[in-house]
Every structure is written in structure tokens, then in C-alpha cells.
Design a protein that fits this description.
- The chain has helices at about 5-10, 10-20, 30-40, 45-55, 110-125, 135-140; strands spanning about 65, 75-80, 85, 90, 95.
- With about 140 residues, the chain is α+β, with helices and mostly antiparallel strands.
- The longest helix is centred in the last third of the chain and has 14 residues, at about 110-125.
């Protein structure tokens, strides 16, 4: 079953309310809690849970696929807050953009451990920053 990312469907007011909430690791589904604990340092657990909440509303099967035959992965779609938004296929808790991993079988990103592990890779490659989730991280005050 394909689902759209609830994050994208929310109004700015709803996103602000969510960002103002104190989101903690214990609010996340158990499989996601375990994966976050496995991959991220303890002082980032709550931040990781908050990013996942904003990105997918803790929906392991969240899918935001804006690709099409005329807009394949990476096609520029628009600019928001000075950031170029491109066609993407973002999957799972952390809405990992599978376009960045073309050799991977993207459906594997529905697995909580695979999704969180890839999120950690992105976070670590960004200098242990939440910048890869720019809009969520900005709302949470993480960047």
C-alpha cells in the first residue's frame, strides 16, 4: 500500500504545533526506538525521534513519491526558503530519499533498522548535523 507523507499534507500551523511539542524517543514505535538507540548517540535520540515524527508521523510505510516520467529523481521542482526541492522518492520513518541510493532496492527502506541506519549515515556524512532533513530540522531548531 502506498501512502503519502503526512508531513507534506499538514498545514504550516499543524507543523508548528508539532515542532513545539516535546517529542521524546519513548513516543516512537518500539521498532524505531530500538533502531535509533542502535545507530545514534544517546544525546541525539530525542532529536532523531522528533525528525522521524515530523517526517512521517511515525509511519513506517510513509511514501512521498514526486517522481514521474517527466520528472525523474533529482529534477528541480521549485525553491522553498532558498532550498531547491527536487523530485524524490522518500521512504519510511525518516523519509529517506531513495533517489540518492539508485543501486539500492528502495523498498528495503520500509524496514525500521535499515531506515534508521541510513538516516544515521546521512546525519554522520553531514557532519553529525540534521541538515539532510532541512525543513524538519529548521522547525525543531536543530539547524
Amino acid at each position: 500500500m502506498t501512502r503519502s507523507s503526512p508531513f507534506l499534507a499538514r498545514s504550516p500551523l499543524d507543523r508548528k504545533k508539532l515542532a513545539d511539542m516535546a517529542i521524546a524517543l519513548n513516543d516512537a514505535p518500539l521498532e524505531l526506538q530500538d533502531a535509533i538507540r542502535e545507530f545514534f548517540p544517546e544525546d541525539e535520540w530525542n532529536n532523531a525521534a522528533a525528525i522521524a515524527q515530523l517526517e512521517s508521523a511515525y509511519d513506517a510505510f510513509a511514501l512521498n513519491d514526486t517522481t514521474s516520467p517527466t520528472a525523474p529523481c533529482g529534477t528541480s521542482l521549485r525553491v522553498v526558503d532558498g532550498e531547491v526541492v527536487t523530485a524524490e522518492r522518500s521512504v519510511g520513518y525518516f523519509q529517506i530519499n531513495s533517489c540518492n541510493f539508485p543501486a539500492w532496492e528502495w523498498q528495503r527502506l520500509y524496514n525500521a533498522r535499515h531506515n534508521a541506519g541510513t538516516a544515521h549515515l546521512l546525519w554522520d556524512n553531514a557532519g553529525q548535523s540534521w541538515r539532510p532533513w532541512y525543513f524538519s530540522a529548521k522547525q525543531l531548531g536543530l539547524i
